[in-house]
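Budget justification, computational time. The allocation requested in the original proposal was used primarily to generate structure tokens for proteins on the priority list. As evidence of use, we reproduce two of the resulting records. The first is shown immediately below.
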Amino acid sequence: ESSFGTNNQEEGVDEADYAKSDGRFVYTAYGDLLIVLDVYGNEIYRLQMPPLIDNTALDPLAEKDLTQNRTVDGRITLETNDAGQYRKKWRAGSESNGRARDSGKRRPSNRERSKRQKRVNQRDAAPITYTSQPKIVDLLLHPESNRLVVVVKEYGKAIRLTVGRTGFGTVFNDYGSTHIRIYDTKQLIEAGPLELLAYKNLNGKYQSARSIGPNAHIVTTSWLNNYDYLESKLDRDQDEFWHMDDEDYFVAAEKKAVRLIMLYTRQIMKELEMNNNCKNMARIALLQDGLSFDIDLTRDTYSNGILRYMTEVSSFDMSANFESMDITTVTSGIFLPTAKMRIYSSLKMLIVAGEGKRVLEEEDGIEKKTFLIGFRLDGPSSTPAAIGNVPGTIINSYAIDHYGDYIRIATTSVIQEDYWDERTVNNRLLILSLPENNMTSGNFFMEEVGRLEGLGREGELIKSVRFMEKMAFLVTFRQIDPFYTINLTDPMNPEVIGELEVSGFSSYLRPINDDQSQVLAVGQEADPETGRLAGLQISLFNVSDLANPTLITKYVVDDGSRSYSSAEWDFLGFRYLVQSKILILPVTLKSFDVIDENFDGFWTFDISTDGITKGFEFRHVSPENIISYCWYPALLPTRSFVFSGDVVTMRSHSILRHSLNSGEKQWELDLDEENTGDCSPYFI
């Protein structure tokens, strides 16, 4: 069995990730490096992103191919930089097989002891250091056109120096902070290099990205430098104003403001590259009616209001014929008073959910709300199409769903006057109808049509949500875990039809069979009396009867150490093999008392209605080296890929290949093995 696709929320909507595979190759980010492996685990290509020159200049073509001497059997050598950081060592065979934890303590090899001592010497000789360098933050892949999109950050400073007005800088303080590069991958088949086809700088800090077929949609957010362009120029202490009385100041300041706004607007248009075409930018007036909390535009369009941030969606066709290495993008956007957001996308609509808040003067507390902006997707373009707001905040993108003409969303409101006071919590599920024909009717506002309030016990928070067409599963937690089944057949009347109380809570829910009658969950066990966490747990639920959900079986890691899986919050690290009924899960064990009890790697589990059984464990670092402080300042994504019954796992600084039948290690690549120039903790 093979399984190498991304664990996406919505079928047909590919989520950007640090690691991707097309079934022939695995592409992964490691700091400023793009590394390519074949499906047998052999590294065949390594590319370093263009460095910043003296921290102020960028040559986009100055990427560096660190791969040398490719050979037929996959053995390669790598050019080493001045610090000796990038040198690959081929190692075939197996030092030790994957094995169950209870089969005995694992003794470190001589090589690991030597490496640990070297790192201790390095740690004692030099302090922990962090170097500023470009970083690959995500990848998008379109196998049909052999195209790979690489998203890079840390170039913004060099780019802003060439765009902003003298003495002002740019309006968008994060101008050019997101850099995208498109590569052709087809030459890799013949042991050739990746070919750079095009590149482009986008405004704003990178948030997330989705692709539907060849069409990519990248979301970024910029903070607006209103102070230099507007506010400081109208300050009463300016030389031209300080001697005026109030009446003269207001008249003079108004005249100057008109001129400043014109300059401000032109600079925004320049930086947005809109060419006087704003049809894809949502009007500020829409925010006043659809998003605001009774916002006063004259008061709130500055540093703490609507004109605080700009969120942009940049869309393009990955399969296009790029000329002059330029990427043609269609940009849409909206002003928002927040940069804290979640991104969700269906096949037809991308939703930006921004978190906002307001002070409750009467209740002397703070209420949080969520702004919802829907961008309608049409090929390589997006258009603002729907705006709304709901009370409370969402836990992650799985709390949003687009189904038919409705947006379904689960939120939590917490009101707490003081840290020591008892909090008031309200969990709810809301259904909003989308506006029809908004381009002709002018109606852009989502309308609430259904609401389900009061989910969970007193003080409990939503921990996980999963929408499944006409039903939903929802988990809340404070001391125990109520697992709810919700009927969404009637959008006007959502209702809880089943509830199951179990200890602990589930962070991620995944239906695992065709009729969606079984739900596999990953989360934490907890003491039902105190709510204190007790370790990683995996649960299997039966939801064939929505009115009577049951717990089929549960596995708890209870060995005295602090145990968890990064898949509890990073769902792309979860991999379930449907045919083999095997779960491959990243696992971390931390013990402060016994070093040998520390573990970082992957475990496999056999999932059955008769029970959940642990299979193999694949260790990515020895317990001694976890506490070492001399590691290259980058991390591999925690991901797994399965090719014909063999699993390739990547974690932190190493990539392993094992047989899922025997647990035998077949191959290992330690990306940090020859690092002598940087000193950073194992967990950055």
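The second record produced under the same allocation is shown here.
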Amino acid sequence: MCDSDESPIEVSDDEPRMDDDSSTGEEDLHAWAMKEWHERQARRRSVCMFCPRKLRGIEPMLKHFIQIHNINMLSVRYQLKMDDYGWIQLVNFTRKTCTTAGEIIKFVKNKEKPWADADFYRPTLKDDLLLQWEPDELAIKAMKEDEALNTHMSPLEQLQERMRTTEERARLAEEALYRAMSDLKQIRTQSAVMLLGEEAVSGKPAAEAVVEDIDSEAEEDPAEEGDTDPYFLSYANVNIHREMLQDTVRTEAYRDFMMSNPDIFKDKVVLDVGCGTGILSIFAAKAGAAKVYAVDRSSIAYQAMAIVKENKLDHVIEVMRGRVEDIKLTREVDVIISEWMGYFLLYEAMFDSVISARDKLLHQDGYVFPGKVIMKLVGLDDKSFRSKLDFWDDVYGFSMSTMKNSEVLEADVVQCDGESICTTSCAFKEFDTERAKVHDLEFQSTFGFDALRDTTMTAIAGYFDTEFALERDLKQVKFSCSPAAPPTHWKQSVFVMNEPWEVKTGWRIEGDIEICRQKHYHRALHVQIRMKLYERRTCVKSQAQDYVIQ
């Protein structure tokens, strides 16, 4: 989506046209497309990482870093051998923690990486230009070394550093070329199929899977958004997929359900929505599926293609990069599988895509797995959550209590200690994945739970439970993200109370919770919790608080 102050894109008469069998025409088209993309990026404005100034285009931004803040971020990238994902973490860390350029320089000199945390894959600033630039192209330009990072190296050390930098530039350029060639190959194939038909291109029957034409009046180019949207960029990161695959509770639950119910998958057509590395598609193939369509909008789809081929399953699994909303098949699928759940279940809004695929592509007698998810709340008495707020009461002898509101506002995503559970748990919302609608995902619901001991309740933890089977004749597999259950990568979303409550065994907490999407970023959540504390039937306290999960 273009910023509001961008100029509209004009299509000129000199737009390149491809002649039949003309490689020169293809090169011209690719060059024109790259030029158009760079011109669009150059018209965009974004705020500096270190000050409020807004600049138009990435190169002016990098020059601004050098001239005003005395730091060359390209040199930072080289010195830390940083890939695209490390850069995403660094930018989000700097914006979220208000880190200065001087502090970044110190981190580089000490070879420290405080941004190397999965939390910093989430964009801090919507449509952040610094997360959408191509460092590979700038890397091959002869940019001056940053004096702020110069440690007075000897001539030999400087020569070694230049050699290392040159090698790094070459590596980045090779990666950029590989990605460009892969994308260009896919574009050529899809264009030929749409223009001539697959039978004319390959001599085979018409394709079962094609990409729908995009409405010329659409606000965004979906292919381009997939390459620049920070959400999809983050899912191109290898570390995210490692974390999910190492979550044995999650991964083994999917595997065990599919292997325990082979009749559901044997000789069936399966759609994997948001396939990532393709592990669920592989499980489905091993369970006997005749055909598996694995769809992901992130560039991780290219890795999934290689993984499928490496495991000799490319005759069963077809990986497609793109939005599942833009995919149509000539036959319906029998089963949809997806690991769509986000923090507090609904963060990331991926359930929308599953619902779209279900309504458009699933046979009327088909299945969606997991079949049911249940959102729950439980009270906590962990004092560490309160100590984070109390910190602001005395900061080097000064009161900064106004910061408490900001700290409470953003829910923490952490793994809580099961010993800190101080109330019964309460299910407040349940979704049947075969029937849920998009409008169901914003709602208000009531909850209630009882204190288990005399203590001080400091927070409420939100989590979800998952059940795969809805029908009794299927072998059930379940897992929970409760603090009392084995840890998962979803952890819990913790809502710190603005005022702790002294509770006694048997006292009742009742309230309502409202969940809706943030207007400026639909993948993030706004949560409002209103609750009352009852001693027997008498209300003794009440409070209300708004939170965000972003």
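A brief technical remark on that second record: Residues 1-23, 139-151, 199-226 have pLDDT under 50 and may be disordered.
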